[in-house]
Amino acid sequence: MVHENDLKVLRDRIKQLEENLKVVYSKLDMPYPEFADPMQSPQVQAALRRGDKVEAIKAYRELTGVGLAEAKDAIDNAL
User: Fold this and answer.
1) 17-55 burial, b if ≥16 CB within 10 A, otherwise e?
2) Model's pTM, two decimal places?
3) For the chain, which residues make up each domain, given as ranges?
4) 63 pLDDT higher than 90
C-alpha cells in the first residue's frame, strides 16, 4: 500500500531529476524535451502533417538525442 507521504517523496525526487536533466541538456547545448512523448511535440507533428518524414526524424532526434536509426524507427512506427 502506497502512502501519501511516499508519493510526495517520489514526486519531489522526480522534480529534482528533471531539473538535473535540464542542466545536462543545457550543458550539451540541446533543447530540453518538454513533452512526455516527443512524438506529440509541435515540431514532429507539423512535419508529419506535411508528410516530411526526414524533417520529422530530425525534430525527433533534436528533442530526444537518440541516434538516426532509433529516430527513424520511432517515426516509421508512428506512420
Assistant:
1) eeeeeeeeeeeeeeeebeeeebbebebbeebbeeeeeeb
2) 0.58
3) 1-32, 35-79
4) no
